[in-house]
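Internal tracking record. Fields below are filled automatically when a chain is submitted to the structure queue. Please do not edit lines marked as system-generated. If the sequence contains nonstandard residues, flag them in the REMARKS field before resubmitting.
Queue: standard
Priority: normal
Entity type: single polypeptide chain
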Amino acid sequence: MPLPPARRRAAVIGTGAIVAGSHLPALAAHADRVELVAAVDVDEDRLDAFRALAAEQGQRVAGFTATDAMLDAVHPDLVLIGTPPALHREQTVAALAAGAWVLCEKPLCLSLAEYDEIAAAEESSGAYASVVFQHRYGSGAVHARELIASGELGAPRVAHCQTTWHRDAGYYAVPWRGRWASEGGGPTMGHGIHQYDLMLHLLGEWEEIRAMAARLVHDTESEDVSTALVRFRGGALATVVNSVLSPDEVSRIRVDCADATVELTHLYGHTDDDWVYTPAPHVDAARAAAWRRPGPGVPSSHAAQLGALLDALDAGVRPPGSGPEARATLEFAAALYKAAFTGQPVRAGEIGPGDPFHRAMHGGHPDWAPGAGREPVGEGRAA
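SYSTEM-GENERATED OUTPUT FOLLOWS
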């Protein structure tokens, strides 16, 4: 088996804040394994600013204003995508068709139907597309998942998943935000998805979801708050809250198992110290102390996920955060919306081709689809 190249050649599509602030440092952290060679942005001023920033870090980056031109000229091994969500599916499929692996910001795409197009592109190209869910990759999350999956904490019974953030009217003044066609949804798709992806990573497959959503403050097409009740296949019950209406911002996951409660409290990223284990009264001190042993100190980050992807690329195997894993989180979002908008419970696996919630997260619902008549915000209307 031939050895992988010493350094992979990477390109970025989109050069805004998330790429400059998160992907560029991640690439720098793995400079011995990957080299940034190209960047794409339709805004030439922003592209020039990004290239200048990369140059300050010793990286000479070719600039392009079109994805196809970059792929034809550069033939990168890896493409990192940080554009608005409506562009993700098209850019991911183009990169896969060119033989490049992809690491794309969440959401990977706007619907399960779009995901099917990405899966088909993977199948025909042999390349893979992963979605950025960096909270899975901190060593604290790795440790917690190992403890839960092994049964060391006892059977999971109750869980809470909370993303209560605050976004003002200025945030939604950006034209693509708050619209189904360009963002895919509200905080269920754009904000809370990181936390409930981690919840799914910790607890495994879910069975049934019931939900509510509302547009209470913001004049958007999509919701600004959603809540859900979830039954997992192993029997555990969970609550999920996704909000952009909360002055005291926090991201939190709590799992009550038979022998311990494990809690994570943070905002946009966690370290080992953010994970707290509380033993049940019957658990002896030595056993509990082993749960809290210091990990390798890897914070959740784009760099941590990029390292895992590069390991998979070198081994020629499907990377974490791709394929069924990526689809499962997208399916959870679609099921939450369907349960909220129809008022009916949704079971895992029921949203397939032909279901309106397979084509779009709003499901064509008359109160929520684009152009639908809406009550004034602030009236507390929910569906």
